[in-house]
């Protein structure tokens, strides 16, 4: 009986609102405790940092094994095991999902943040997030149009138990690597000495925060992409009420902690090139919609044993490596001799965004159930 009541709570509107509010509060606290400004939680940024820590890219300012990511997967795994929802499955167009992950990351790093960070930037006063959120909404709306016309990557199928356990085991390996890294010597793991990668909350606080969020998000199915999709398709505001709670709670917590600084230019780890903020998130939103979940949701699904979601995450990590090795990512606004230099992306980033949009549109048109 108690288990049924718990399940009903998590499935209720109250449950999703409480989860969203806790994510907002925890994100603001993680920033206060050392995570980068306006980046208490950013799935895309944190996966990029992990890629750098593993030497997949050599952007020295964004290299760190973020415990929050490990916590998201392992917290979701614990919840799935406790409630009998851990099921090994795979086989739903895995290669397509991998490349959707690659282009989702490229789009997110053009904007400099995932959907969660877009919301948290807005809650901290960064008005550039408005164009990013608008682009995210447009990208998801395009994905919804494909869904209405029969788009599908096919059904996943039950697979051997090892498929479901591989990715959580990889997260455990990364966590051990993070704990042991100081003893391994130089060259094994790369940690930033300056820049966003050098800013982090204490290890076990970050891990505990990730575990709690992973557990709650798995139970409530928290998903930023899904919230917009459900609102467009069915007018269902259940999930988006949790997203709204995240923004409100983060905003209030930022006020309390003195972290609310409204503005449009010179915002932390952000640029005011509005066209590319918009188009980068159009690409990311479309890729998330075609893959069936935002980057956070993909991590939570990976913790449930979903091998296809795990491939999407690995695609995002690969996309982070491409973004920095080939100068595709956005550069933040900066000050030089008292003069503001607006950031944005270079020619390679422009080409990558359009290639990504072409790829996603091709997938949307071609992957239809007969």
TrEMBL record:
Name of the protein in question: Uncharacterized protein
Membrane-spanning segments: 7-30, 69-86, 98-118, 130-147, 159-179, 199-217, 238-256, 276-295, 307-324, 344-365
| InterPro entries documented for this protein | Seleno_YedE, Sulf_transp_TsuA/YedE
The UniProt keywords, alphabetically, are: Membrane, Transmembrane, Transmembrane helix
Q: Where is the signal peptide?
A: none
